[in-house]
Amino acid sequence: MFDLSVEGIFSAAHQVKGYPGDCAGIHGHTYQVRVILKVDKLDNIGMAIDFRRVKTALDEILSELDHKNLNELKYFKERNATAEYVAMYVFNEMKKKINMMKAVTVWEGRNNTVTYYED
C-alpha cells in the first residue's frame, strides 16, 4: 500500500461569519494544500499514479479559488469559508477527478492546519 501526496498553494480572501473576533472581517491568506492518495498497487512500470496527473487536477481546483473572495463562490455561500470547508471542498473536487483520495490537509498560514478525510 502506498500514500502519495502532491501540494499546491493559492491566495484568497474570506471572512468567517458569526466569528466573535477579527476573522469576522474580510481578510486574506496564502493557503497551502496537500492532497494524499491511497494506492493499493503499482502499475506495470512501478508507479502508483503519475504525479503530473495529480498536480494537474489539483492546479485546476486551486485555480478556481485563487485570488477570489471565497465567500462569493457558490460552495461557500451555503457554508462558512473556513479552512475546514476548504479542505472538504478540495477533497470532494479531487475525488471527482481521481478516485484514490485519502485526505486533504490545508494550511491557513504557516502554523495552522486542518485535515479532511472520509472513513
Please give a structural write-up:
The chain is α+β, with helices and mostly antiparallel strands and 119 residues long. The chain has one domain: Tetrahydropterin Synthase, Chain A, CATH 3.30.479.10. The protein contains three helices and five strands. Strand 4 (101-108) and strand 5 (113-117) form a beta hairpin. Helix 1 (51-65) packs across helix 3. The longest helix is centred in the middle third of the chain and has 15 residues, at 51-65. The two termini are 17 Å apart.
How many strand units?
A: 5
| Number of domain units | 1
Which topology does CATH recognise? Tetrahydropterin Synthase, Chain A
Which residues form runs of ≥5 with pLDDT under 50?
Answer: none
* Major sheet summary line: 5 strands, mixed
Radius of gyration: 15 Å
SSE topology string? EEHEHHEE
What topology emerges from the helices and strands here?
Layout: E1 2-14, E2 27-39, H1 51-65, E3 68-69, H2 74-77, H3 83-97, E4 101-108, E5 113-117
Parallel strand pairs: 1-3
Antiparallel strand pairs: 1-2, 2-4, 4-5
Helix pairs in contact: 1-3
